[in-house]
Q: What sequence folds into this?
């Protein structure tokens, strides 16, 4: 199976969620199932069925996170020798030359992407255009409305 790149922060967030699911959510739903069972007839017991459904969701999410972590190649960008180039995990401040608006992006793995937070997927057009460039370079990004030119103002490795 192919390894999937993930930032240190992304792996940490998944580990925290996994820990919470195993130590808090799983015991809570097991307790809810036990209490619902104590109420008698399970066929018409809505609390029991809701708790079982939630248990299925929690167990599925635990398996999903464990699979993601086992297939992750965690990359600590602060330890890479990048010579100032944009690489996976880097934070980049760009100036859109058409709108004169600054944007800040961090290039992350597909599962970590959240455009509202400025985290763009390594496979996105913006990330692909920025990878390998340095401060002062202009990257051309193909977007649905045409081509956007982004001047790289700053590259950080956090």
A:
């Amino acid at each position: 199976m192919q390894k999937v790149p993930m930032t240190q922060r992304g792996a940490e967030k998944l580990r925290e969620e996994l820990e919470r699911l195993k130590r808090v959510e799983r015991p809570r739903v097991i307790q809810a199932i036990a209490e619902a069972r104590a109420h008698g007839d399970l066929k018409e017991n809505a609390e029991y069925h809701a708790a079982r459904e939630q248990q299925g969701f929690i167990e599925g999410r635990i398996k999903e996170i464990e699979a993601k972590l086992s297939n992750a190649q965690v990359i600590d960008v602060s330890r890479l020798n990048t010579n100032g180039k944009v690489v996976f995990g880097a934070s980049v401040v760009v100036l859109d030359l058409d709108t004169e608006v600054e944007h800040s992006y961090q290039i992350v793995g597909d599962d970590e992407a959240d455009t509202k937070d400025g985290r763009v997927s390594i496979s996105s057009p913006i990330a692909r255009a920025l990878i390998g460039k340095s401060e002062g370079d202009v990257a051309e990004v193909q977007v649905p409305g045409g081509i956007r030119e982004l001047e790289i103002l700053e590259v950080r490795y956090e």
